[in-house]
Amino acid sequence: MSLLDRPPSVVLGANHESDPTDDAPRQLRRIEREDIAELLGSAVAALAIQWLLLARLLPMEGAPAAVLIWYISFLVIYRFVAAQHHGKLAGKDRLATVVLWSFGLIVIGALLLIIGYIVVRGAGNLRLNFFTDTLKTTGPLAPATEGGGLHSIVGTAMQVGIGLVIAVPLALITAVYLSEVGGRLERPVRFVIDAMSGIPSIVAGLFVFVVWISASKTGYSGFAAGLALSILMLPTIARTSMEMLRLVADGYREAALALGAPRWRVTWNIVIPTARSGLVTALILGVARAVGETAPLLLTAFGASVLNTNPFSGAQDDLPLFIYKQVRLFKDAPVDRAFTGAFVLLVFVLIAFVSARLIGGRARARR
Amino acid sequence: MIQKISRHLLVIVLLVPALLFGAATGASAASPVLGQGSSFAFIAIDQWRADVARKLGLDLNYSSTGSPAGQLAFKNGQADFASSDIPFLPANVPSFSYSYLPIVAGGTAVMYNCSDDAGQPITTMKLSARLIARMFMQPGLMYANDPEIIAENPSLANRLPNKELRRVARSTPAGTTAVFFTYLAQSAPDLWANFKKTEEVFSNPSGEFITTYSNNFQNSPLTKGWEFKGGSDSLADTVTAQGGQARVNCFIGYAEAAYAVQKKLPVAYVKNTAGNYVLPTARAVAVALLAATRSPDGTQNLSRVADNPDPQAYPISSYNYLIVNTSAQSDKGKNDTIGQYTIYSITEGQRLSADLGYSPLPPNLVQQGLDAVGTVPGAPVPPPLGEWGKYYLQLGVQAAVGADKATAAAKKSAAAKAAAAAGGSGTAAGTKNGSKKSGPTAGGGSAGAGGSATAADGTPIDPAAAAADGSSTAADGSLAPDGSTSGQITNSSNQLQPDDPQLVAIAQPAPISRLPFGLAMLVLVFVPPAVLAFSRRKKATT
Questions:
Q1: A29 at the B interface (CB within 8 A)?
Q2: Residue B437 DSSP SS3
């Protein structure tokens, strides 16, 4: 009996008896009690092997070795159990499924661990005064719930805002050039944009420090930080906007040109409005890229403990610098405060990403 | 709908900064005083910044970028004041006149992380200057059971494991390293000369030599098994290594004592000139700094600190200063702010220094600071010294353990007299010495010391332990048995002692006789899936 003669359920490992004449769509993979028993049994068996090997036979110890040995023996045991149970092919299939699932779980687990840790450590000390108070009179000996990050939130808003004001027009023009105009310079420009997205952020900060702060003797300021952030945002926004403009169907352009509209009108009145949600997504992605940067801000905004609403003069704080400075105070209360700052920053970035997904996703769905 | 929202979003995102600019033009652009530099003093400077903002309405800003970086920024006019642990490096000397103001003191601790073969941490290590110099200036491997270490710690002889002692040092120029090197250069000149020769092979630029190990030295095979870290915090993190690393190796490093307290790392007792082994507590550092003198250029001269004969003195003590612009063209308003800030910090602010993990400045340094403020144009007139600078006398006296017999015998009479003077309040030996130096309030000083037995971090010491420490040095001057006090500066009375029955039990190696049990477990766990599999298979074939 060849493989093809057997009903697909046997071949693919579905272990329920099925009637080949039944026309109803067949669920190929239904999780049954036995499957779970197999998984659990293998897991426990692997645990025993791991314990035997580590505690009694091998001269190794430590959690990483334990987990690794457990995982490998689990895979081996499960492979044989599944093969015995459902046939060789199904055994391989299940092994692959388990491996893929476990790697997926590791990635998601790492992400959840990071977010969870920040939420657990940061959210507990979050009070309303974090949004209304500064660190002006809060020193390292003050409890973690005292003081706030108003000056940092305002600074972040201003610096990212300045960065956007500078970067968005440039990025949009670049994107239009690359997607609508083209020409001999298209390749070099695209190359420069790609190279720019690889600039280490500290280099952008150093550039602004040398060109703006050292040379012009204006001193540290929020504006300088905005300049550094715009360098970092430009490639992200330009590349994403270019993709978004490319998504606009050629039929629109052709129809407009056929009606006699000049190229600039087609771009201005047809292409950009059509891609508007996409462009907003690009902008938000740029913000999310810049809002968590610390290295360039250290050299440009310097950080402060008081509210400075004038970005053109004097040191200014922002959330990443708030976190950095508080962590370096090396006392319990400031470190807790830093985690609160990290939590707030995380929420900001999360909001930015989710709204980008929502707007961008709907834009694509509508098309 | 979504188009509308996104259009509005675009407008809002672009408008917010514009609106904020509008608001900004209305607000006054009060430019706060900017400072940067030492990470050693950051915690204290930041606390006092908050205090003067609340009490005096002053606006200061400080960022810890490291002493050399702070000096450079000060020279280039990017900082109104710098904080530094060391005098100006040759490359950073500004073109205008400047002055050094002492602001906060601290001890450089030798912290370590070493567990014996039973896995119990060793907490009572005692080191001499020569040993420390060997550790941090002699390239090559070193083991925790080195004969010289055992000679210094006879009671740990059977606990010190045969593990590699990994040296953790700073990788970048740092004031802490400079203070540490200066101490070693003075206390172990022959080893220092050797080390200098080694470094000269790498043609280290002369100016930076004292502040850091050269890059070539760090990367050479000579430092195999060493680790170099950028900041005091990451150095302390490395020493705190756990898991497999800590099982295989021991770690030792140097940083400001506050970092060891924060990381709960044990700190080495360091042998001082009097032959006592002393921890870097706030009081021990302040006592040592009573011998600090001011060089003609205003920088600290620590040569008399390292060999301060006081039995309580911690030899690796130093202080940090603010550096301010004193030229005629300097901004008077900014100097006023810096002057007020300094006066607050070195008088009122010193009350907090022990809580912050530092040592209070002794009176001679407070006087130096006040004098120096007087020379800053635009700064307020400093108050007279008065009673300022005596906070260290209120801090508990730590027990200095393991003095050699001769010193102990010499101390015996002094301690008895001191105890009598303080009305039997259990002060340790050396209080008398300290209070004598501190001037007019000798009696009050020793009474204060006896009355409030507090550890370096301000928490009360376990009374029993404090009494034991006191009696071991004060009552009869005999040596405290090793292990009766721990090298941890924090309250450590609940540490396991070497001969603790609990520890002896742990030290027994686990027997490898439960193999049958393991096999039984294995069979037990294997049987259910196997049975399941076979029963299933039968059904499938039928």
A1: no
A2: helix
pLDDT digits (tens, 9 = 90+) for A152-189: 999 999 999 999 999 999 999 999 999 988 888 999 99
Between B167 and B11, the more confident residue is B167
Over the range B478-515, which residues count as b (16 or more CB within 10 Å of their CB) and which as e?
A: ebbebbbbbbbbbbbeebebbeeeebeeeeeeeeeeee
Tokens of A150: 């108003």
- Restricting to A residues 304-323, those with a Cβ less than 8 Å away from any Cβ of B are 304-306, 308-315
Burial class (CB in 10 A: 0-12, 13-18, 19+), A215: exposed
Q: How far is CA B401 from CA B113, B156, B275, B306, B497, in A?
A: 20, 14, 10, 18, 16
Q: Is A38 on the interface with B (CB under 8 A)?
A: yes
DSSP for A126-168 reads --GGGTT--STT--TTS-TTSS--HHHHHHHHHHHHHHHHHHH
Q: Cβ contact (<8 Å) for B53 and A136?
A: yes
Region A134-139 average pLDDT: 87
**Per-residue pLDDT tens for B195-228?**
887 776 554 444 455 778 888 888 888 888 888 9
Q: Which residues of A touch B46 (CB under 8 A)?
A: 139-140, 305, 329
Confidence of residue B121 (pLDDT cuts 50, 70, 90): confident
What tens digit of pLDDT does each residue of A247-270 get? 999 999 999 999 999 999 999 999
Residue A137: list chain B partners with CB under 8 A.
Answer: 50-51, 53-54
